[in-house]
Write a structure and sequence with these properties.
9-stranded mixed sheet; single chain; about 0% helix; disordered C terminus; 6-stranded parallel sheet; mainly beta; UDP N-Acetylglucosamine Acyltransferase, domain 1
Length: about 190
Amino acid sequence: MSNIFVHESAYIDQDVAIGDGTKIWHFAHVLPNTQIGNGCVVGQNAMIGPDVRVGNGCKIQNNVALYKGVILEDDVFCGPSCVFTNVLNPRAHVQRKEEFKQTLVQRGATIGANATIVCGNTLGAYCMIGAGAVVTHDVPAHALMVGVPARRVGWVSAEGEILGEDLVCPRTGTRYIEADGRLTELPSKAKGFA
């Protein structure tokens, strides 16, 4: 591991891979068989692992725990104190380690502070989960989700801008089209498309 920063109070267990330019801050704990990509930031008191995969460019804010079964693709933002579960029906007196469910967070997704992501669901690319929302089912790409349980209230661009009825990103001018409850980016003429 080279060109990384690990604060002296953080714990890094054996069999961990940490990419270039990644920073791990105060009191964080990275457990065995965990991979963290390049250019990530792991905030104070975060816990990652065991057996977790974090892509490149992810930002994991303070007090976030990524349990076994969580996969973050590139450029995912996990807001402070957001919660990932790993079983659907936990009981302190019942061992359920063989029942952990996978949770996939696709590229560029944002999860707001104090949101809860129930295990076994997929968060689509570039979706945005509002602060305090509770996600209980799969989330489409680019969906803006709020509430308990979370429901789609709009769409967001890849840059995180809320889209109006015209489905044009106010930051970049990128156009989207909605069909069958899904949002798709239209090809750009600048990229050689008609």
